[in-house]
Amino acid sequence: MMIPLLDFYKAIESTSERMLSAALAEDWDEVVRLEGACAVLIEQLRERSQGMDFSTEERAEKHRIMMIILRHDAQMRELVEPWVDDLGELHRPVAPAQLH
Questions:
Q1: Which of 24, 41, 51, 55 has a CA 20 to 30 Å removed from the CA of 89?
Q2: Burial of 82 (0-12, 13-18, 19+ CB in 10 A)
């Protein structure tokens, strides 16, 4: 049985929502696990969508889902970027003048 392509988009949307919830709870292990699950879904979608076309209604639904996924991604970036910036500060080389 062939899974409809929109079901993959819906699964990615759901997973991205769960990733955001995990990030808000600072459950980074869960974020990483869900990120892996999202990557698998995206790869499956790529494989199955070759040469497939959407109807007008399906394109509208796909667009709606993609906008939600992008919103989740933006919210995740807001949560993660300060942490990444802090990490960058820890790995910045120390200038010789600062050693004294």
A1: 24
A2: exposed
Question: Mind listing the domains of the chain with CATH numbers?
Answer: 5-89 (1.20.58.380)
User: How many Å apart are CA 51 and CA 53, to the nearest integer?
Assistant: 7
Q: What is the pTM of this model?
A: 0.77
Using N-to-C axis directions, what is the helix angle for 28-48 and 5-24, rounded to 10°? Answer: 170
The predicted-structure confidence for 54-81, as pLDDT tens digits, reads as follows 899 999 999 999 999 999 999 998 888 7
Q: How far apart are alpha carbons 72 and 23 in whole angstroms?
A: 11
* C-alpha–C-alpha distance, residues 88 and 86, integer Å: 5
Q: pLDDT tens digits, residue range 10-58?
A: 999 999 999 999 999 999 899 999 999 999 999 999 999 888 888 999 9
